[in-house]
Design brief:
The protein is an alpha+beta fold and about 150 residues long. Helices cover about 15% and strands about 25% of the residues. The chain has helices at about 25-35, 80-90, 125, 145-150; strands spanning about 40-45, 50-60, 75, 100-110, 115-120, 125-130. Strands 1, 2, 3, 4, 5 and 6 form a six-stranded antiparallel beta sheet that branches. Strand 4 (about 100-110) and strand 5 form a beta hairpin.
Length: about 150
């Protein structure tokens, strides 16, 4: 979903009409959480620019506070639950406390395979769905009018 033939990974958004800009933060969050591995979206970069990216996978990462936290630390692919238990499962014999984990999405940003992690609390503000408006043969759809076509019919 969201495959636009006029964009390549890493391209900066050329028009706000190429993204679904939600006025309601809850709707923006809901749309972002509907993404699946391999779906395309526009993601907000550290410099404030919106770039075209593809969701590589969802993961878990230690929950943290600051703005810079989103890029730091390890993340663990949720398709490998043993990673979570190996690194963060509490051990009574050593007194370690369980660290709180937060769902994340890891996006592939460019053809080189660079990635960026977005934590769940950032989904509604820093991830935008792709609009197919204006593309030849797209039917000028948006997420509310013909959801299957918004992301390229996937």
């Amino acid at each position: 979903r969201g495959l636009r033939p006029d964009y390549r990974l890493g391209d900066e958004a050329r028009s706000a009409s190429h993204m679904l800009v939600e006025s309601n933060p809850y709707s923006a969050f809901q749309h972002a959480t509907s993404l699946h591995d391999g779906d395309y979206a526009f993601v907000k970069r550290s410099d404030g620019k919106w770039t075209y990216a593809v969701l590589g996978h969802r993961s878990l990462a230690p929950s943290g506070g600051g703005k810079n936290d989103r890029n730091g630390g390890n993340h663990y692919n949720m398709s490998h639950p043993s990673n979570y238990h190996q690194h963060y499962h509490p051990r009574n014999d050593t007194g370690f406390q369980e660290k709180k984990m937060e769902e994340c999405m890891v996006f592939i940003l460019n053809e080189k395979g660079s990635t960026k992690q977005y934590k769940k609390r950032q989904f509604g503000e820093e991830i935008r769905m792709v609009s197919m408006k204006g593309l030849h043969g797209s039917g000028n759809c948006d997420a509310s009018s013909c959801a299957g076509s918004v992301w390229g019919g996937g």
